[in-house]
């Protein structure tokens, strides 16, 4: 069973789905192949901060009606350290706001609005002839073996996908940095205790207070990379959050409630270069991973596929391959800026516990970024995100 399309997209996460809509808007045919079920993909709880570039792009595609109704718009974040809270006025310093709207909500909106070929629950996806006329072979949900011949393959299949692995050994260079911590994340049926996000540096470790709605809070705790979630009953989680979010202003209280979802996520920085090989183009987590401290993962994935969609549009319209040939170089400029910012936020906010020199550097950086307008502006412009390419 062989079919044909212009662009074969592997993965129905933010990268794959935004790319599909961008191509559809430009009259380019594509097929999306996803190994998980629709319900699984829509239920995956991930991050929730959207840069203005992401919101503007989704709006331009007509995919942001629910987002604009339900999102929370924030004009600042709070850095808490040494018991004192300091607000970074993002909009005042960088001219743009941030949007709080769950990644799984974005994915639900993108799937609901998609009326093109999107095959869930596929298996055994394999790529061939990447330097010629690529073929994607796979088994569909009914167990039927199929082949999809395409001009181009977009590898939007995340860090654990097959696309990056399909590139011959020796072609890619991987740049990687691991961190001595992970994040224990919870989603709680509890009203947020702050109107804006709180990034807390404490002697007990980092904590983040975020949210999803006026009744649902999203919070994280720095834990060991090998942390066992079974050792964290609800009471211990809430007690640790209260301890790390405590401040000299005794009036502040952390509201708690039933924990709806919990998980431990490892933290790493990872980039492969180049992000392309032949007619295969990697986008999003398939090409790079950032620590979540900068809230960049989804936004970087969207920026990649905007570059790819623009390059494909030029190629199909005029035969000009310059955009495709420069894809990796164009994406990596933003990728490395975001990698640095995410590493910098992570290094500043996560005590390692055993090095007084590191602790002194962290406190010095936190004092500087909350007392110097220039330093705070640098944080703000990176946090709200730079305009898309
Ligand atoms: N075949 C088909 N689909 C696959 C395969 C495969 N072999 N391997 C993985 N997938 C699917 C996954 O099930 C997932 O739905 O590819 C999709 C990749 O989506 P993400 O992992 O969300 O990656 P991306 O779209 O790049 O979005 C990056 O998502 O993981 C978060 O923190 C990350 O916020 C960032 C964003
Ligand atoms: C989230 O709301 O999930 C979130 C917010 C900010 C981050 C990471 C995650 O830096």
Give an overview of the whole structure:
With 389 residues, the chain is of the alpha+beta class. The chain has two domains: 2-75 and 95-175 and 268-345, FAD/NAD(P)-binding domain, CATH 3.50.50.60; 179-267 and 352-384, D-Amino Acid Oxidase, Chain A, domain 2, CATH 3.30.9. Helices cover 35% and strands 30% of the residues. It is built from twelve helices and 19 strands. It has helices at residues 14-25, 38-43, 52-60, 65-70, 90-94, 103-112, 234-245, 297-318, 322-325, 327-349, 356-369, 373-384, and strands at 2-10, 30-33, 49-50, 72-74, 77-81, 84-88, 98-100, 118-119, 123-128, 135-139, 145-155, 173-188, 197-202, 205-213, 216-223, 259-273, 276-277, 280-282, 288-289. The strands form three sheets. Strands 1, 2, 8, 9, 10, 11, 17 and 18 form an eight-stranded mixed sheet that branches. Helix 1 links the parallel strand 1 (2-10) and strand 2. The protein is globular. The mean pLDDT is 97.
Ordered list of secondary-structure elements with their pairings:
Blueprint: E1 2-10, H1 14-25, E2 30-33, H2 38-43, E3 49-50, H3 52-60, H4 65-70, E4 72-74, E5 77-81, E6 84-88, H5 90-94, E7 98-100, H6 103-112, E8 118-119, E9 123-128, E10 135-139, E11 145-155, E12 173-188, E13 197-202, E14 205-213, E15 216-223, H7 234-245, E16 259-273, E17 276-277, E18 280-282, E19 288-289, H8 297-318, H9 322-325, H10 327-349, H11 356-369, H12 373-384
Parallel strand pairs: 1-2, 1-11, 2-8, 5-13, 11-18
Antiparallel strand pairs: 3-7, 4-7, 5-6, 9-10, 10-11, 12-15, 12-16, 13-14, 14-15, 16-19, 17-18
Helix pairs in contact: 1-6, 1-8, 8-10
The structure holds adenosine-5-diphosphoribose and P-hydroxybenzoic acid (PHB).
